[in-house]
């Protein structure tokens, strides 16, 4: 149902990113994972599909936490968000609460999550179902230097480019404040992605093509701090 993968090959400069993608499927399969606060949020959701995706994404994120971090109680990890909507896994390691960088995406029954194994690398993941909508909106988000090599289908091409920019905005942690036209995404024919934001922040990513969806996982090429001073 879910499969776990490493979007980037091992390297000496950065610890790996661990990601998972799959279908949300049956709500009952994941119902044991949310904490009481999350159940309260779920009960406020009107859409069954939204509930299923929301619970599944957090269940899988806790599974990744159990696989990658030596925390005391991985299934008790809390998923919190800052004022821009950026999620973080808060967990206990050796009796101390720590925050671990992560990213969550869900769309039309699909769920994708990723976790930075070093706990601090800025990461972003996005999953999108292939549709006409990104083609219609291309003028609002695309940059003249955007490129998706080897993809002739306009729907898949612009869905991929949109997904690149969604994932990049999550790396930046600025939410809807980001002007997507300032994000340049170049995807080669092997699915490797280079992203530049306004000439100030570089990111690398990988793309995965599914039957009816695309998944993009990105990470910053260097630590992002307040000193970067990048603007939306």
Describe what is shown at a glance.
The protein has five helices and twelve strands.
Reading side by side through the largest sheet, how are the strands ordered?
Answer: 1-2-6-5-4-3
CATH architecture of the largest domain: Alpha-Beta Complex
**What Rg do the Cα atoms give?**
17 Å
CATH class of the largest domain: Alpha Beta
Largest sheet: 6 strands, antiparallel
Number of strands: 12
Helix content bin: 10-25%
Structural class: alpha+beta
Mean of all residue-level pLDDT scores? 85
Total tally of structural domains = 2
| Number of DSSP helical runs | 5
How far apart the termini lie comes to 37 Å
- Low-confidence regions: 226-232
- Helices and strands, in order, run as EEHHEEEEEHHEHEEEE
- CATH-level-4 superfamily name of the largest domain: 4'-phosphopantetheinyl transferase domain
């Amino acid at each position: 149902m879910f499969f776990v993968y490493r979007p980037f090959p091992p390297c000496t400069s950065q610890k790996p990113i661990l990601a998972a993608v799959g279908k949300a499927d049956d709500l009952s399969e994941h119902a044991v994972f949310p904490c009481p606060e999350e159940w309260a949020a779920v009960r406020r959701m009107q859409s069954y599909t939204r509930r299923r995706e929301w619970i599944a994404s957090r269940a899988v994120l806790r599974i990744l936490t159990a696989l990658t971090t030596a925390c005391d109680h991985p299934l008790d990890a809390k998923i919190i968000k800052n004022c821009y909507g950026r999620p973080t896994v808060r967990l206990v390691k050796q009796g101390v609460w720590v925050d671990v960088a992560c990213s969550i995406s869900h769309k039309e029954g699909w769920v994708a999550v990723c976790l930075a194994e070093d706990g601090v690398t800025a990461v972003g993941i996005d999953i999108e179902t292939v549709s006409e909508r990104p083609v219609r909106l291309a003028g609002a988000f695309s940059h003249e230097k955007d490129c998706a090599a080897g993809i002739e289908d306009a729907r898949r091409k612009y869905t991929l480019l949109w997904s690149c920019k969604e994932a990049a905005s999550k790396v930046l942690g600025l939410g809807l404040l980001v002007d997507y036209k300032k994000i340049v995404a170049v995807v080669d024919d092997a699915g490797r992605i280079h992203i530049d934001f306004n000439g100030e922040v570089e990111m690398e990513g990988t793309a995965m093509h599914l039957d009816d969806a695309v998944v993009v996982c990105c990470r910053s090429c260097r630590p992002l701090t307040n000193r970067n001073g990048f603007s939306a």
